[in-house]
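Table 4 source record.
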Amino acid sequence: MPYLFAAFSIVWLGLFSYLFYLGKQQKMLENEIQKLKGKTFQQ
């Protein structure tokens, strides 16, 4: 039974880490899009 708990813990930790990474990447992409939009309007 401890192995089952350890396996679930690892899976959930990996899932939350991946979701955190995706959120961070999305925020970076949104910032980049805003910068590019600002550059196109300035021209």
